[in-house]
Amino acid sequence: MTATTADTAVSESTSPPLAEQNPALGPARRWERIALVVLLLGTAAAYLWNITVNGMGNNFYAASAWAGSRSWKALLFGSLDPGNFITVDKPPVSQWVMGLSGQLFGFSSASMLIPEALMAVAAVALMYGAITRATDSRGAGLLAGAMLAVTPVVAMMFRFNNPDAAMVLLMTAAAYCTIRSLRGASVRWLMLAGVALGFAFLAKMLEGLMVLPALGLAYLVVAPTGLGRRIGHLLAAAVALIVSSGWYVLLTILWPADSRPYLAGSTNNTFMDLVLGYNGFARYLGKNHMGRKMLEMPAGYEFPHFHGGGPFGGGNGVERLFTGEIGFEISWLLPAAILAFVLVLISRGRAPRTDLVRGAALTFGLWLLIDGAAFAGMQGGMHAYYTLAIAPAIAGTVALGVLEMWRRRSSVLGRLGSAALILAGGVWGFVLLQRNSDWQPWLRWTILVVTILAAAGLALTGVPALSRRTHRRATAVLVTAGMIAALGGSTAYAAATLPQAHTGGGPSVGPAHKDEMPAAFAQMRHAFGMFMGGDDYPPQLIDLLRHTNTTWSAATERSGPAAGLELASHTSVIAIGGFTSEDPTPTLGQFQDLVRTHQLTYYIAPEVKLPDSWRKKPAHPAAGKEPNQPAAQQDPDAALWHPVGNADIFNWVAAHYAPQRMDGLVVFNLSAAPH
After folding, report:
1. What is the DSSP letter of 262?
2. Which of 642, 649, 645, 647 is CA-nearest to residue 588?
3. Are 85 and 79 in contact (CB under 8 A)?
């Protein structure tokens, strides 16, 4: 009794290097080594293949990567322009990677996007390592890595230039470090998890920290040391997180504001206002204005009404995660993951507190539930690709469930649990494919039939008439076939995603599909034209910008159009008002100073010819006047609209400089003599 207690005390209170060793795993067998190489090289080949089909991806972040390739200060702060007037509205970690690649290899689509694809390989490797170490099974690790690689949103976003890929890689690294810390209560590995989360915060702010509660709870419950030590280790990890993220926050405070770019998205040019406001609670609660000043219509006009669409992200509630574009991007294995989490907790119910498999289930399962609940409750507009943040959690949880049921295959729980996991993946895959019924109709029926047969077979393998050898072989065949079928829909959609060109702010997964937007909305988008931030600008305008020699070639409303102009002309452009035109920079006085000191050559504003169909219909038309008389017949300039959020700047420029019109834009030469 005394010896047992002493042994327990040693294991609970110490964490020497030997405690982190994993003798149960043993040396890798040849097929395991080959399989890992195939998985990583296959991921690299699939994700790197024809990656430049995406061009500049999201121009907003591409312009920042270009700026970072031209200026070290722009790289440090994540500036939108090399002149360092304003940043993008996110922290700069992702821009560090892409901008540094541009500095080393020259800026191009390839130098910007190849690092993103390599991040996918790293994330797959980390998933393999985390699950392998948690389960002592390289097969389970391979399954987890493969499931992550064939998730459609992963296949899209790790070939794209949004910050989400860097953030999710760092979140996965934090989960891996947490798993490493659980075996021997290693404060060193737990602090590394804190460092990874600190940089995840610097990739996409609070979203990068949403995994934090799951990792902390898993360590607090499972780590093999006393409660006091566990709490102390968590505090040490919190310090590591604060230091690894806080240095940048401190840098933005100590660096003179007039010597650095304005922190876009903030109301007062501070980083924490951006974190807690525009990119934090304001976004989550739907309180961001998103450029409403810019969209105020002139008197006598109104936006056309159209049905359909609704808020992007499919509305609120849990159903959001299973419907619309979000369903196609992430939900293929979501029902199976939730079921797997429950099954593992039931199966390991009598295991010791320090059980590592249960610890891994808590890590990935709580990650899934916490982040999933946050996405379900988000009030503001939500891009479907945000759900990339739960892709590693789904892959890890399903892999743990499959392995646990396999290890208990001789029991009723193991057989029925395996059958249920296969059905959850296969049937839901059938439902999702049914929503796009014109694409590969044979696939969904094949998946449904195979998963049903595999599940039924597993339920029948427990009959006493089968020998142990027959039972073992039959179970292996049925589980393998069933899992391949359950992964079939996700894999097919990921494969269909890879060759498609993805650009703009809201890319979507799967095969190419017809853009069936309401006619009125299509008319609205056409009317706005290049002002929405495209890259097909008039050659005459681009030539003008290229021949400027001022710090900024031009200024225009919003970051999207400014980014497009920068990429087309390779000149620095001021984004007035930032991404939504709501940022309080530059003021009219600051803009006038830029003009007076010859730092700015052109001012560019959108000019929209409003369709007659957008005119308001008077409730009581005046006698003798036709209610539908075109506005242009009353006033030739009445149908011209300049949607700008900073009207004081536009009005000042229009009052002092002569306009030049170019394809839906009005251009003012600020170097000319004013009126």
Report:
1. B
2. 649
3. yes
Which of 200, 210, 206, 202 lies closest to 173, judged by CA?
Answer: 200
Of the two residues 392 and 526, the one the predictor is more confident about is 392
Compute the distance between CA of residue 377 and CA of residue 385 in angstroms, rounded to an integer: 16
Rg of the chain, C-alpha, whole Å:
28
Question: 3-class DSSP state for residue 228?
Answer: helix
Task: Name, in order, each residue with C-beta under 8 angstroms of 617's C-beta and a sequence gap of 6 or more.
Answer: 627, 628
**CA-CA-CA-CA torsion sign (247, 248, 253, 255):** positive
| One-letter amino acid of 383 | H
Q: Which tokens in the block code for residue 136?
A: 């002592």
* Cβ proximity of 271 and 280 under 8 Å: no
Q: Which of 8-22, 186-200, 627-641 has the lowest mean pLDDT?
A: 8-22
Q: Which amino acid type is present at position 60? A: F
Distance (Å, whole) CA 590 – CA 378: 37
pLDDT band at residue 616 under the 50/70/90 scheme: confident
Query: 39 with 142: CB under 8 angstroms?
Result: yes
pLDDT of res. 531: 57
Residue 301 has a CB neighbour count (10 Å cut-off) of 18
When pLDDT is averaged across residues 145-168 and rounded to a whole number, the result is: 97
- CA dist 461 and 463 (Å) reads 6
**What residues are paired with 555 via a beta bridge?**
574, 603
> In sequence order, what E strands does 304-461 have?
none
Mean pLDDT of 101-118: 97
Q: The tokens 């060759």 sit on which residue?
A: 499
Please determine, for residue 217, whether its predicted confidence score (pLDDT) is greater than 90: yes
Question: What is the DSSP annotation of 70-111?
Answer: H-HHHHHHTBSSTT-SBB-SS-SHHHHHHHHHHHHH-SSHHH
Q: How far is CA 446 from the centre of its chain?
A: 32
Separation between Cα atoms, residue 274 and residue 267, nearest integer Å: 8
Strands 608-609 and 600-606: unpaired
Could you identify the residue written with the tokens 């939500």? Answer: 382
Angstrom distance (rounded) from CA 494 to CA 143: 16
CB atoms within 10 A of CB 453: 16
* Dihedral over Cα of 120, 122, 126, 128: its sign: positive
User: Which residues lie below 8 Å from residue 183, measured CB to CB, with a gap of 6+?
Assistant: 19, 20, 22, 133, 224, 356
CA 288/CA 476 separation, integer angstroms: 53
d(C-alpha 9, C-alpha 142), whole Å: 35
Q: Which of 563, 521, 558 is nearest to 649 (CA)?
A: 558
Percent of the chain at pLDDT above 70? 84
Task: Name which of 556, 431, 413 is nearest 493 in CA terms.
Answer: 431
- The CA distance from 612 to 31, in Å, is 69
The pair phi, psi for residue 570, each rounded to 5°, is 55, 45
- Mean pLDDT across the chain, nearest whole number? 87
Please give the biggest Cα pair distance in the chain: 106
Whole-angstrom distance, CA of residue 569 vs CA of residue 529? 18
Q: Which of 395, 398, 371, 396 is nearest to 204 (CA)?
A: 371
Residue 357 near residue 414, CB atoms below 8 Å: no
- 406: number of Cβ within 10 Å: 18
Structure tokens at 455: 């599940």
Sequence-ordered list of residues with C-beta below 8 angstroms from that of 319, at least 6 positions apart, any chain: none
Count CB neighbours of 296 within 10 A.
11
Give the sign of the dihedral formed by CA 343, CA 345, CA 348, CA 349. Answer: negative
- Give the C-alpha separation, 20 to 432, whole Å: 42
Q: What is the pLDDT of residue 2?
A: 39
